[in-house]
Amino acid sequence: MRKAGILNRHLAGALAELGHGDGVLVCDAGMPIPDGPRVVDLAFRAGVPSFAEVLEGLLDELVVEGATAASEVRRANPAASALLDGHFPALALVPHEELKELSARARLVVRTGEARPYANVLLRCGVFF
Q1: What is the dihedral of CA 93, 103, 20, 74, to 10 degrees?
Q2: What pairing do the DSSP bridges indicate for beta strands 64-70 and 92-94?
């Protein structure tokens, strides 16, 4: 068993398979899960684990070269908006319906237990060199 880092074996394995340009959707419990991408569902109960906890854990493991979120997050979820702005100064914003369409091309979906609206972000993997 790993001493540190991500302990969930399904998530650790999925992250190890990602390459440059691959998409990772980190989403709340209410986001529709598209058919196609690999899904790691971490939701235990409402709010557990939180979007912030999962996102920050993933950012410890991934190189991210870009991020996209729903523009509705600004109005409907100021806490998630501030979290995303803090991590991604060049955050791209699109309508929620477009984010759902983009998420269908993600390679991995990580579902959190977050129960607040629009706590979703599509990450684009970078490279570490």
Answers
A1: 20
A2: parallel
Residue type, 61: E
Structure tokens at 68: 């996209």
3-state secondary structure 17-86: CCCCCCEEEEECCCCCCCCCCEEEECCCECCECCHHHHHHHHHHHCCEEEEEEECCHHHHCHHHHHHHHH
Q: How many other CB atoms are found less than 10 A from the CB of residue 46?
A: 10
Q: Is pTM, for the whole model, over 0.85?
A: yes
CA distance 66 to 94: 13
Write the DSSP symbol of residue 98.
H
> What residues act catalytically?
20
Nearest to 115 by CA among 57, 10, 44, 62: 44
106-128 pLDDT, tens digit per residue, is: 999 999 999 999 999 999 999 98
103 close to 25: Cβ distance less than 8 angstroms: yes
